[in-house]
Amino acid sequence: MGSSGGSAPLRAEEVVRRFYDFLARGRLVDALNLFTTDAKLQDAKGRESSGIRAITSSLLTYRVPQDIAVEEMEPEDGEIRATIRSPGGRSVGRFSVARGRIKSLRMERA
Questions:
Q1: Which of 9, 26, 41, 43 has its CA 20 to 30 A from that of 59?
Q2: pLDDT for 110 beyond 60
Q3: What is the CATH number assigned to the segment(s) 12-109?
Q4: Which residues in 1-110 belong to E strands, given as ranges?
Q5: What are the extents of the domains in the chain?
Q6: Are 12 and 95 in contact (CB under 8 A)?
Q7: Which tens digits make up the pLDDT trace of 3-20?
Q8: What share of the chain is helix, strand, coil (3-state, %, to 5)?
Q9: Is the dihedral of CA 89, 37, 49, 100 positive or negative?
């Protein structure tokens, strides 16, 4: 039996960790590559972006390095809950991840 040549999808926690690492380093394109093309993002103010184009517009401020640190990450109700610290304060991201890609992200103030 041979290998199909593909690699296994990343675990959900690793996808979330990479997402924040890419944002912290200003690597917006790499962060966007972690989303499905039909993903949804809801920011802390409740505004929703659907699809990769809209999500790109929502995340444009992260095209330069940011001071972002993941304080805590844990599974919760089928999602990954990540608490982060940034110059704007603490926030919580709730990620739905499938097959190594972010399907949805909801942000809220901590």
A1: 9
A2: yes
A3: 3.10.450.50
A4: 35-42, 48-50, 69-76, 79-86, 89-98, 101-109
A5: 12-109
A6: yes
A7: 455 678 889 999 999 999
A8: 25, 40, 30
A9: negative
* % of residues, the chain, pLDDT over 70: 95
Please give the structure tokens belonging to residue 86: 């940034």
Q: What is the pLDDT of residues 69-81, one digit of tens each?
A: 999 999 999 999 9
Residue whose structure tokens are 């690699």: 7
Runs of H (alpha helix) within 1-110: 12-24, 28-32, 52-58
Instruction: Report how far residue 15's alpha carbon sits from residue 80's, in angstroms, rounded to the nearest whole number.
Output: 10
Listed residue (10, 9, 14, 23) closest to 80, CA to CA = 14
Residue type (1 letter), 107: M
Exposed / middle / buried, residue 96 (Cβ in 10 Å: 0-12, 13-18, 19+): middle
